[in-house]
From TrEMBL:
PANTHER family according to UniProt: ER-BOUND OXYGENASE MPAB_MPAB'_RUBBER OXYGENASE CATALYTIC DOMAIN-CONTAINING PROTEIN, SECRETED PROTEIN-RELATED
Organism field: Chryseobacterium shigense
Chain segments annotated as transmembrane: none
This protein's name: ER-bound oxygenase mpaB/mpaB'/Rubber oxygenase catalytic domain-containing protein
One Pfam family of this chain: MPAB_Lcp_cat
Signal peptide boundaries: none
Entries under InterPro entries matching the protein: Lcp-like, MPAB/Lcp_cat_dom
Molecular function GO labels: oxidoreductase activity
Every ER-bound oxygenase mpaB/mpaB'/Rubber oxygenase catalytic domain range: 153-342
């Protein structure tokens, strides 16, 4: 199938890149956006992680789900060699993930992890109120979530899983082979394959030509640009500063996570300039929000009201208000309107206060102290979420698929 940049002349695309967050990303990164490399990247809309898919077919589809999960955990924690009596697909997967790429720089991984930790709650605000909710504006990107009935699962559970993955991938030495972040990357890769194969088997209405393959490589690239480029831009908007080394570190960290997840290396950017140029091409095949986008966005906004971590209703209502303020501050007004984000009073007050606080805090507290405090505070938030969701990686629906 031949793909065209079909939305490049659409109002939503032009506004984003000429006046909205896209224009801000160009200014932030110094990117030069055009369509000369479109064909080079667009084929990945129909490309998937075949290695991960084969593992799911040979392991998960041949035994009970919990037995397959236990088997994979054993491979992750103990490694796989060429002489082991395991399926060929498993050997292929682990020969790739156990092979350290020549470009990997552990000092850059450390710098990226330190920026994630020292940004403390701003990291979590960025992930939630810019990266996640902003991603809901891309209607085709969300089709796998709709197909796997993510709304039935609930935003508390979805947020908990995203947080669990992100925190465990961004600690010191988290991505060493057999470490926690490495384990999360492999498990997430196979969750994607399981979901993709389930969609292809059960969803007779999946529109491959328009939506691409379910959880395709190009959509995966865009998702991980969210964790690097969009994340960095959000931190900057909230008044955080970062060194050139930390900036390189964020891109390097997510490049390696993407490598472990089976995303083709040529789709994994090394810099904010490259990431913005890649992202520009991808957005040209995405229509704006649809009704599913709005449902997903409102489910996330209302997560604060449903989540029992905070004891009193007024606390939960106030937290929802603060997230709405940050969403309006971080995203385009046009995107917020499309997603029907509620209008609230004094919506700039909290983000502007946060910017002032960050500038003072960065001046009077040492970098090492900020890293330690951020690590501790983020781990506490994760523990609270895992406590209320009971740390289940999958929830089965009545078809036996993970959702």
């Amino acid at each position: 199938m031949i793909l065209q940049p079909r939305f490049k002349d659409s109002p939503h695309f032009k506004h984003f890149w000429e006046k909205g967050n896209g224009k801000q990303l160009i200014d932030f990164s110094g990117a030069e956006v055009n369509f000369k490399d479109f064909e080079k990247f667009s084929r990945y809309f129909y490309h998937v992680d075949e290695v991960g898919d084969e593992v799911v077919k040979e392991v998960y589809f041949t035994k009970k789900f919990h037995e397959a999960s236990r088997e994979i955990e054993n491979y992750i924690r103990n490694g796989v060699s060429e002489t082991d009596a395991v399926p060929d697909s498993v050997k292929k997967l682990f020969s790739q993930t156990q092979q350290i790429p020549d470009w990997l720089d552990y000092s850059l991984l450390k710098s990226g992890a330190e920026l994630c930790m020292r940004s403390n709650v701003d990291s979590l605000i960025s992930l939630r109120d810019y990266c996640l909710i902003g991603g809901y504006d891309y209607a085709y990107l969300n089709k796998p979530l709709t197909a796997t009935e993510a709304l039935k699962k609930g935003a508390v559970k979805r947020l908990s899983e995203t947080l669990d993955f992100w925190v465990n991938a961004t600690r010191y030495d988290a991505l060493q082979i057999h470490a926690k972040g490495y384990e999360f990357a492999i498990k997430t890769r196979l969750i994607h394959s399981y979901a993709r194969l389930s969609i292809k088997k059960y969803d007779k209405e999946w529109d491959t030509e328009n939506w691409g393959e379910p959880i395709n490589s190009w959509d995966m690239m865009a998702t991980y640009i969210g964790f690097s480029l969009v994340f960095l831009h959000s931190l900057q908007k909230l008044g955080n500063t970062f060194s050139e080394e930390e900036e390189k570190g964020i891109f390097h960290l997510w490049k390696y996570v993407g490598y472990l997840l089976g995303i083709p290396e040529q789709l994994l950017p090394d810099s904010k300039k490259q990431a913005t140029e890649f992202f520009h091409l991808w957005t040209s095949v995405q229509p704006p929000s649809d009704k599913d986008s709005i449902l997903l966005a409102h489910s996330l906004l209302n997560e604060s009201l449903e989540n029992p971590i905070l004891k009193f209703k007024f606390q939960r209502t106030n937290l929802r208000y603060l997230h709405i303020c940050c969403t309006w501050f971080l995203l385009d007004d046009e995107v917020c309107k499309r997603l029907q984000i509620p209008e609230v009073l004094n919506r700039k007050l909290f983000p502007k206060t946060k910017i002032i606080f960050n500038k003072i805090y960065d001046t009077i507290v040492s970098r090492d102290a900020r890293i330690k405090k951020g690590d501790k505070d983020q781990m506490k938030v994760l523990e609270d979420y895992l406590r209320v969701t009971k740390n289940s990686n999958f929830r089965q629906n009545n078809t036996g698929q993970p959702v």
